[in-house]
Design brief:
Length: about 375
Amino acid sequence: MNGKTETSHRGRLSSFEAVRIVAILMVLVVHCVRNKFEVTDPHTLAIECGWLSWEECVMASFGILGVNLFILISGWFGIRLSARGVFGIFFVIIFYRLLIGIAFLSAGAASAKEFLLFIVPTYLDWFSGAYVLLMFISPMINHYIGHHRRSAVKLVGGAFCFIWLCGWLVNTQPDNRMEYNLVIVVLMYAVGRILRFSYDSGRWHYSPRRLLTCTALILAVSGTVWFVLTRYVDSIGFGWWLNRIMLSRFNPVNIAASIMIVLAAARLNFRSKAVNSVAGAAFAVYLIHCNPFVFPYYKAVAIRLFDTGSAILYPLGVLAFAIATYMVSWLIDRVRILAQQRIEAAGTASRLSNALNRAVAWLE
């Protein structure tokens, strides 16, 4: 993400940057599966679209970790609120709104009204809006966890238990809309901070190979169980409830798998300018493919891939499509970086720093 962290972008381990690349690929893959027909209820899928296949269930089990990994990494390094960080994230958001909006408007694929509504500054997708808010409240979270670690563990654990109870047993909506808010971002960020403190104190130092192997096995088994239960056991009453659990970022299995991947990255100590460069476009990839003008086309390609009907070609096609989407977005992001560097060189961002730094000092 483009927010400022305790460790600079250049100084961050490339193992974590590689995880960011994998995370956005996971998001791209799960959007191919989860939004294939704009339906998340397996019973509806069974009636209108045909069952989720085994490979879709397994891909979704891996793909749902993407957002968790992004936030855990932010928590691991810690966001340090700064004018440059705030300017950077807003610049990326506005840049791609304007770039894509103008392109579609020029091509006649969007009306002037749609373009104007889309570029309104108050409009933010759920993740961007939540992350911007997280940047502003992160000083308070960092301070609390740094000085009250034990109580923070109890508070975060209690919050997760409350969400599991209310979200799975009480909530009757056959989807995961309750997760698309600031709560998941704050809690996963707090988990990342707590995990970093625990790791630095000498805990959780396991073999990366063992951690990654366990993660792959757990998610493969989890996806297989999901497939078997929803398809062969109960497709009406139990099916949609299980679907909400399996596609939940709060699922304990998904949280544990995300944590194991981050711990493996911490143990893999390497640096690579190429990896860091590619990872720097991760947020741009998200903004481009989730753009309201672009996403219908992205989804249309996903449906075409599904129509191949092959258990081998479909997952390979989805992965190739996700990689191609990432690389095209990375190339486009080179233009954004040059534009942002020129604006920052002109001193535009530094004009905001004094007031914001005083506000941060007050919060801390």
